[in-house]
Amino acid sequence: MINRHRPGFTLIELLVVISIIALLIGILLPALGAARGSARALVSLANTRSWAQALVQHTLDDRDFLPWDGHKSKMDRNFAEDLWWANSVPLYMGSDRYRNLSPIPLPGADPSIFTDQVAEPAASMPATGWRYTGPGGPLDFYFNYVFNAELANETAKVRSRNLRTLSGVEAIKLGDLPDASNTILMLELRANPDELPASDPFYGEALNRQKADWQRFAARHSGGGHLAFADGHAAWAENKAITTPGIDAVTGAPGAYNQHDAIWDPFGTAD
């Protein structure tokens, strides 16, 4: 009689198979992680592009005016103003005015145009977002995408001089920008100091802001973040490249941050 019994794997054969599987896992896991990171970055890029296009649409409906960028810290005045960017631009993106949102959008909750879902808020931030306490009581807020704080720094040099002033802060027209395709309107805000190494000169910058510049630019997407430009496009930029000073692309001044393809202050030196 023929013995049809097949011997099992030897110990050596099993070890070889296990080694091959471990090797494949070691190769595939980083690739899967990179693919997951790329997918998340694409979502953030899409959010930033939506902001860029909504900002341009806003100017078409408001006599070419860019939205009011608001006060640096007086959030009660910002919340009260219909033309504040976070109250006016979301209407072009299928969202309500920011002041009407309750609770405020935070990363990890439902997707929102105001947040990047992979952002990890700073440990110092309360669970309900950053809090501003003013005469009318506390206001909570949180943003992963914010307005460029340098955009209207040099309004005396604006060509049309046809400005809008709200609460002492001026808004300019899109048509006044000399180089719209390279001028930054919004940026992805760093959510956590640890997106940067502790040795970075901008590591300790406060992140409870509704407008910002290169000092608070994100680094959570492959060492960078996304920028929204005045012609309606958005792009990824490396944090290190954006935050390394050089010859100012607008004025020629040394040690500044305007670059030919990333202009913060379109009328003066970004420093």
Automatic annotation (TrEMBL):
Official protein name in the record: Prepilin-type N-terminal cleavage/methylation domain-containing protein
Domain of life: Bacteria
Gene Ontology, cellular component aspect: type II protein secretion system complex
SUPFAM superfamilies: Pili subunits
Pfam family, one: N_methyl
InterPro entries in the record: Bac_GSPG_pilin, N_methyl_site, Pilin-like, Pre_pil_HX9DG_C
Transmembrane regions: 12-32
Organism: Phycisphaera mikurensis (strain NBRC 102666 / KCTC 22515 / FYK2301M01)
Biological process terms in GO annotation: protein secretion by the type II secretion system
Keywords, ordered alphabetically: Membrane, Methylation, Transmembrane, Transmembrane helix
PANTHER family: GENERAL SECRETION PATHWAY PROTEIN G
